[in-house]
Design a protein that fits this description.
Helix content is 64%, strand content 7%. It is mainly α.
């Protein structure tokens, strides 16, 4: 007769980390932009572009560093977030480099500024800083719940960031919108970082106040209306968003700011009435401001009928070029490097870079990019559903909602669905503030998903349980 000892390991239950899946997807996320870079070079000059090797190695190095950081400090994170962001960032670099080769844009820059400097190298540098920001988030933010301690500090920080462009000598207006500050020779858009800080504040605030905000006082037309004394938060946020719109002429940030709060309010309370009230208040505020703000009115005119004012208003002229770019792209597009979206001129590689996608990759390419963005949003919502704490649920949903709103207002504005807002397409458009802030956003989502997907510790064995069993010979 023999005796076999049955031992139980105390620790975490084994679960796949999916890091190898992430690495395989990163291979495709690097290979596709390199192939696109080759296509642009062949279309423009008929030969392999000289910088393709350096571009490919640079993008591969950034992806490798990001993967190693995630593998080490967030091993159970969602395996799709990093590859999707890398693919979009890489394709953005390709599109920016393609516009850098445009003789029209080079001639325009030489005529206006007496010099020309390509934007693709700067965007690569900003992407590297963005990856460093993602690494910093994962290294320093060991637990996302720590951010809840800074709820009201986040509110103050967000207000400071939003008001910085109004400081004389620091802020600067670009084509009517006062959304930039100049620091050490660099232009920074504080609103891109404010959306992340605001998501932290909204999450902490709504987690505490959600029960009071969920109460209804009366029913009207099938909707349960909130109590009058609970309308204070949404009225305050609405007023602040209108002040941003009035003093900074920034329609995009005000829509993003107010819309993100309404989305998180709905998620926290499950009251449809907040969504309806939010939509009515945003429309009323935008219409009211557009009636006396010339910058906003010009964008509304360019949206309503751009061809009637194309010779008088610059925004109308740009909008006509954008619509013609989409129209000439058709279903499959003209091909990378073979379009004329550079006729848009100013902001062709930033605010209007999606027009290049529409013309050179066609409707099919537009749908592919929107699908990639939709997958990031879906993974963020999935992370919110999987989070084990209410703060993490609200924060993941707020960041995903802010990302989704930005995609909607930019794509909708460029395609004529809504007036132009002046915001940039995340990861795709040229702009250091946008790239760095969105990599930080991805880093926070990765941290929350790692916490949500991490297996729970196995229960300790019962010392009184029988530890041996008899086995017949």
């Amino acid at each position: 007769m023999s005796v076999v000892t049955n031992t139980t390991t105390i620790g975490a239950i084994e679960a796949p980390s999916r890091r190898n899946t992430e690495l395989a997807l990163l291979g495709f996320a690097v290979a596709i932009p390199v192939f696109a870079y080759l296509n642009v070079g062949l279309a423009l000059d008929g030969e392999v572009p000289a910088g393709m090797l350096g571009y490919g190695l640079g993008l591969a190095l950034l992806a490798t560093v990001a993967h190693l950081v995630v593998r080490k400090w967030a091993p159970y994170a969602d395996p799709l977030l990093l590859p999707l962001a890398t693919l979009l960032n890489g394709m953005g670099l390709v599109l920016i480099w393609r516009l850098d080769q445009s003789p029209r844009l080079i001639a325009t820059s030489m005529r206006l500024y007496k010099s020309f400097s390509p934007d693709a190298p700067a965007q690569m540098m900003y992407s590297a800083i963005g990856i460093a920001m993602l690494a910093a988030v994962l290294l320093l933010l060991k637990d996302h719940r720590v951010l809840q301690r800074y709820t009201y500090i986040s509110m103050m920080a967000a207000l400071v960031l939003l008001l910085l462009p109004l400081v004389p000598g620091l802020g600067s207006a670009v084509y009517g919108a006062k959304i930039w500050i100049n620091v050490a020779g660099f232009s920074i858009q504080p609103g891109e970082f404010a959306k992340i800080v605001l998501a932290v504040f909204f999450s902490g605030y709504l987690m505490v106040k959600r029960d009071a905000l969920a109460l209804a006082s009366r029913r009207f037309m099938g909707l349960y209306l909130p109590r009058g004394r609970d309308l204070g938060p949404i009225l305050t946020i609405w007023a602040v968003s209108l002040l941003i719109l009035i003093f900074e002429n920034d329609l995009g940030t005000s829509l993003l700011f107010f819309g993100m709060f309404v989305i998180m309010l709905y998620v926290a309370t499950e009251r449809t009435s907040w969504i309806v009230m939010g939509l009515l208040m945003s429309v009323a505020g935008a219409v009211g401001v557009a009636s006396f703000a010339s910058h906003v009115q010009a964008r509304v005119d360019a949206w309503a009928d751009p061809f009637s004012c194309a010779e008088k208003v610059a925004a109308c002229d740009q909008m006509t070029e954008v619509l013609m770019s989409f129209g000439s792209g058709g279903i499959l597009g003209t091909g990378l490097g073979q379009g004329n979206s550079d006729l848009i001129g100013f902001a062709a590689n930033s605010d209007f870079i999606f027009a290049t996608v529409g013309e050179e990759l066609g409707l099919a390419g537009v749908m592919v990019f929107l699908l990639l963005y939709g997958l990031i949003i879906e993974r963020g919502i999935r992370t919110s559903l999987a989070a084990r704490d209410p703060f993490g649920k609200l924060l993941a949903m707020g960041l995903s909602g802010a990302f989704a709103l930005q995609i909607f207002v930019v794509a909708g504005g460029v395609m004529g669905l809504i007036p132009l807002t002046g915001m940039t397409m995340p990861f795709l458009a040229y702009g250091g503030s946008s790239v760095i802030a969105n990599w930080a956003l991805i880093g926070i989502l990765i941290r929350i998903s790692d916490t949500a997907r991490r297996p729970a510790p196995a229960p300790a064995p019962n010392p009184d349980a029988e530890m041996t069993q008899v086995v017949r010979p």
